[in-house]
Known about the structure:
two-stranded antiparallel ribbon
Amino acid sequence: MKKRIIAFLLLISLLISTAVLSSCNIDGNLVGTVIIRNGKSNILSLGDSIAAGTALPGYNADKPTDSLNAPNQAFSYLLAQKLQLGTANMAVEGYQTKDVLNQLNTNATCIDFVTNRAKIVTLSIGANDIFTPALEMVKTHLGIDDANIRTENELLLKHFEDYKNYNLFEILGDLVALSELLTTDEAKEVLQNGVKTFKQNFPSILETIRTYNPDAEIYVTSIHNPLEGFISVQSMGVTLGSTAKYYIDQLNAFLQSLAASGDIVLVDCSALSSGTTTDEDGNTVGYLNVKIDIVNAIYSLDPHPNAYGHQYIADRIEEAYNARH
Length: 325
């Protein structure tokens, strides 16, 4: 059972975007061209893997931290086209609020852009504040570390594919065990500390942006629950989805309080987790790469938005922008 849980955790680790599962091939036609306009007529996107465009075609996991580029399907690039503004993307996969705050205080490229170029700053950050520490706690309990995960990468991925050969009750047993671990007093403390850290750092991020550029419009995307698919099997003892929801709801409630006070414009992206749209062939598709179907042994746990998801985010920010102008 332990090895199956490790395999499951390896895929869950996509949540903190360590990008160890696959290499990214860069297609020059898929990477958005940075167009910086004169003066404060640009969009700067900051945050984690959501804003960075992780898992989109053309995504570069190894881009320098002072790079301004992103895939041309990333919402920042789409939004800039809609609003006819310049754009730069300095989001980095795996970032927590502490990393964005450090970026704003130490990265010369970021400081210059916020100060002299940004009309709009988008922030997509927060989930890693709770998921990263929780994952580290679980790995400690299982006696594994990052080195073990990386060296056993191919083996574990293959083992995860073999879930299709396991009895459904064995799989549910693993998920219940992981669910129980994440509801221990230790896990609750770790997760709640993540919420506390978020509440401490996020206002500092806003204050720093305002210090550099008092006129910048700050649009913050709400945080979606990448484990929402597990809520449907909660009656079987798999509480991963509801546990994640409990803490993510606290993050979003804090963002709502900031929006109510006028500090930010909060953009509701909650439909990312369960919303659907129609593709060019008329098929119903979701906004995320994630698909969890325990009965049919489908476990695609990549929680990042696909191209439709990024279009959805760009549309929601555009709506919020138009409502103010």
